[in-house]
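Figure 2 data, in text form.
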Amino acid sequence: MEETSACDRLAADLRVLREASRLTYNAITAQAKKQTPPLKLGGSKLSAWFSGKNVPKKDDDAAFRYLIQLLEPRAKKHGVTSKGIDWWRARRDEAAAERTPPAAPIKPAPHPTLPATTLPAAPPHAGDTAKAERLLRLLPLDGPWLGWLEDAQTMLKVPLTVSDLVCDAHRPLEKDLPDYIDPELHDAHGALVTALAALCWELNGMNDISDEGQPVLEISHPGTSAERNELNRQACQARDGFIPAYRAMVNLLNRKNLLPPASLSPDALSRQAGPERTPYARSDGARLRDTTAEPHPRTPRIGQGMPERARELRQAHQALAHQGLGEPADEAWEHGTTALQDFHHTDSGEPDWVLCLADDHPPVAVAAPIWQAIIDAGRADPGQDALAAIGFPVPPAGDGAPWLIQTDLESLDLAGGHWGDGRLTRRRNGDWRWEPRPRFSFEQGRSATAWTSGQTPALRLRVVLNLPWASTDGLEITAQRRRDLERKLPYSQLAGAMTMLSKRRAADLPAARWTRTPSCNSSRSLSYQCTLTTTDGAPALQAAAMLSLPGTIETSVTACAEILIDDRDAWAALLQPDWPTQLTLEEAQAVLLGAWEAAAKLLPEAIGAPQLRWSSAPTIELRLSSERCGPNGVLPPLAQVLDLTSFGDGDDHRPVMAVTITAAPCLAAEDRRNLLRQALVHMGRAFGYVDADLDALHY
């Protein structure tokens, strides 16, 4: 049998869930009020549930269900496994059954006897009465200290009138002798002292800044806002543990008739007295109900939860209030160095706002539906942090003034995420899609040299697409799609580029016959090639198309298309005499464009051409390489098989040049041509052709 009760286990599980969700009682209350119809999840109710004082009732199932559905997704991000509402209901019912006393057995009616005299209940022990009086003198029931602790949004600053009273009470209560005679009171007193010790520990770690004119204790700033917020969380957790323990003790004293009128402060007694009533006209139980009633939820303040950024948030709110930015809907929170806070719209029927203060950008208020689109676009990031992935909104103008993003916006620039700069665009069906802003680099992935085993072509012109789609588990290369691909390959842009190379040399050598390679074909990969050979079977020119779904090594869908000059002499044998086999830059550009089009549009059709969310930024790798060693065992320079004179003087000894484009793979033909030309110029300059420019590429 487990040592703890079902009620305690439920409360402990709920506390773990809430702490991992990072939501305060006030945040939960505010979110519950937004539901239709509004749900009542006030501070007192939540405190009783999380402390184990009360068990959620079955007739309050809607509130309990909402609480679990609110907390579990947030807690999951911090390592707490979601169990589902049915599991929580079973826990709740088990605790409720434990709290329900068994029905008393029905006894037979006794024989009539003479009326018995009702015995009076035994009065409380005098020692317990005295001990209760000392407790309530140290921690007065109606003192303002308790109201402050119950209503405080944070523990960043605590008035000395509160901290002094709490800390001064700890030592006398801990050392108070003798113990309670009543065992229930003894246990409750021990729990209270333990919770009080935890709260005092947090208070004693704060800084007294009364010499600066503020009679408060303040949480220190250990270095970063995240660390300071963690200290605040720990202090709030200690406070949230103490208040239920104090309430449980007071309620127990009340049940045992140990709440004397003196437990209320003289000021409170005078307030209760009226022209026709004495200070003692109301019962102790009524006064206790007043103090334990659920507090009326307060509207969060601007900047609440982030005092160090409150001034900035207030200034931004003031600048945008006339455009519909209303009252705060929740506490402020931070993401890295960015401060954020939810606000209501001034018109009740309009969506809420998210006010965002990101570094290097003016403040922006984002309509809630657009903000949700931002989160959804980056949700598939492996780190499960959408904002860290795609960043924050970038204003269209650079005047630095606060601005708004309304719900009718069609596109939005984003920056600051590790995916790089990008744009979020609304599609015709209403869905949003993130695409990267084009940029160039020289990082090549694992597939840059894949599918090359045993090959030594004189020249390889390759395009590799890395397509990091999310949720690719259900993708498959079906038999029908494979047959459709085999019919389309002879008429593809890739086949046309291969045929073009021979036609420009007065030879008609169509790329008509495509075959599956001996390997790399399955339900998760495909590989096709078209080879032109001489009469004696020597390979001369080859085109190839490959695609693979994510595996143990690659985490992205990878599509590759390329054209190879296997052997220049063999190709020359298929041409008319004296035609050169060295390619021009214009021809290389045409080949790369055809390969890009095939890899981006044709090959993904074999897996259904999905339009899934990205889990990172897609890339297009261009690779130009000379791979057949000369007699001396050294790879010949690329310039020997590809005429680079249009780029001007440069390093003509390199066997390989490559560049990576981060961009949307599927572009309009003209956009794709312009971006490829820019990438080739960027590559040429980086590899020593410093005079390369767009005029060198006339295709």
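Caption note: The chain has 20 helices and 21 strands.
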